């Protein structure tokens, strides 16, 4: 059974990174280690946070 992830929620969690909660979108999509990295480094000093705007759709897509 696969879980369905919402792209809207992924982008919402991504946007919270700009108020200091970096990495929540990575936790939401099951990427715990990179979520911790994003959290403790401020989204890889915001560079990773900006790159993730293009990666969120692929991260929220269901594996089939």
Describe what you observe in this structure:
The chain is mostly helical and 64 residues long. It has one domain (7-58). It is 66% helix and 0% strand. It has helices at residues 7-15, 24-28, 32-45, 47-60. The longest helix is centred in the middle third of the chain and has 14 residues, at 32-45.
For the termini, the CA-CA separation is 11 Å
Strand residue content: under 5%
Instruction: Output the radius of gyration.
Output: 11 Å
Q: In DSSP terms, counting alpha (H) and pi (I) runs of 4 or more, how many helices?
A: 4
Task: Compose a concise summary of this entry.
The protein is mostly helical.
Write the layout of secondary structure elements.
Layout: H1 7-15, H2 24-28, H3 32-45, H4 47-60
What tags apply to this protein structure?
single chain; 64 residues; mainly alpha; 0% strand; globular
């Amino acid at each position: 059974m696969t879980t369905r992830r919402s792209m809207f929620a992924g982008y919402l969690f991504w946007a919270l990174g700009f108020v200091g909660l970096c990495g929540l979108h990575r936790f939401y999509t099951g990427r715990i280690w990179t979520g911790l990295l994003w959290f403790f480094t401020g989204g890889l000093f915001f560079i990773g946070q900006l790159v993730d705007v293009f990666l969120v759709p692929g991260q929220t897509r269901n594996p089939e």
